[in-house]
Amino acid sequence: MSIHRFVTITWVNKSVHNGLIDVLQTSKRCMTSSSTPKSEKTVQQQTSIEAFSRLKIQSSRQTYLPRIIQLMISQFKKKMRIGSNNIDPQLKVVLDHSSAQLYYNCANHYAYLKLCEAFGLPDYPSTWFKLTLMHVWMVLMRLHLALEAHSYLRLQRSLLSAMWLDVDKRLEILGNETSQRLTSAKDMKLMHALHVQTLLEYDEGFLRSDVALAGAVWRCLFIERTCDPIHVNRVVHYMRATVAYLDTLDSETILIQGIKEWKTLKPKPFGSLNSEVTKGGKMLTEKVLGQTDESSS
User: Fold this and answer.
1) Residue 50: what pLDDT?
2) Which of 82, 157, 201, 256 is the 20 to 30 A CA-CA neighbour of 224?
3) Coil, helix or strand for 26?
4) Which of 97, 111, 85, 247 is nearest to 159 (CA)?
5) CA 108 to CA 8: how far, in whole Å?
6) What mean pLDDT do residues 292-297 have?
7) Angle at 219 between CA 216 and CA 222, to 5 degrees
8) What family is this protein classified in (predicted)?
């Protein structure tokens, strides 16, 4: 059954975004450093993702409590707001609405059929899930350097929560049409395992080499099945080219307006001042560096 019989769930109320620019400018004070002395809590908020993770690992102590007891303690602390990260309330509003908007862009705004044809993938619901997960990963890869640790974690959790709510609804609708149950515990565990594996392996492969990324693509996108190596190479090129394009977008623009179009950036040889943006097979030229003549004048 084609993926186009799915019902698209609109997560974002478009009218909310008219006032988000002012909100982001107000809450930007929480993301920038100040000349006044900072308390230890403020310094902890401004740490990077890597430093935050390192501190969490170093500060964690070995425990012998059963897993169920640990979960109960964690839920109690969360309910009582013990150890709250104290993110600015206005920034929380921006992050929550941005996560919903960005997931909608990841799930609906990329050229699904063209990618299926280019990558040699069948038009199945599982293919849509894996391609959507790939675009979610690319957005998280772009924003994890733009936000401080607690803000990024809130955005990540909200975005992934929106994704799973959408997946559950789509599977429910498809199951009603085919008179099958597609949301069994076994199936959901497999999808969740693939989701965790994909995010981890894409991170490692992207940071290591194209060979490592190709292996991650083969395991996560093609599920270790026989495929044409040319298709794997196309996926690797698409991922790196798309991340390169996202790097040209301003972080505030991504958070406020989302990603309206998915493009790939093809840089010219070293020393060139221009780059070419591929959009629907048509090469559009945009300047990523200011012209030397204009800057000198």
Assistant:
1) 66
2) 157
3) helix
4) 97
5) 8
6) 41
7) 115
8) Belongs to the CBP3 family.
* Per-residue confidence band for 64, with pLDDT thresholds at 50, 70 and 90: low
For residues 214 and 205, the answer to whether their CB atoms sit within 8 Å is yes
For the chain, the distance separating the N- and C-terminal CA atoms, rounded to the nearest angstrom, is 60
Q: Same structural domain for residues 294 and 227?
A: no
Helix (H) or strand (E) holding 282: strand 282-287
Listed in sequence order, the residues at least 6 apart from 10 whose beta carbon sits closer than 8 Å to its beta carbon are: 104
Q: Helix axis angle, 210-220 relative to 229-247, nearest 10°?
A: 110
**pLDDT for the residue numbered 140:** 93
Q: Judge if 279 and 213 occupy the same domain.
A: no
Q: Which two tokens stand for residue 69?
A: 């007891």
Whole-structure pTM value? 0.64
Q: Based on the domain organization, do 135 and 275 belong to the same domain? A: no
**Tokens 């969740």, residue?**
192
Other CB atoms within 10 Å distance of the CB of residue 17: 15
* CA–CA dist 32, 267 (Å, integer): 31
Instruction: State the Cα torsion 213-219-225-226 to the nearest 10°.
Output: 20
- Whether residue 238 lies inside any domain: the answer is yes
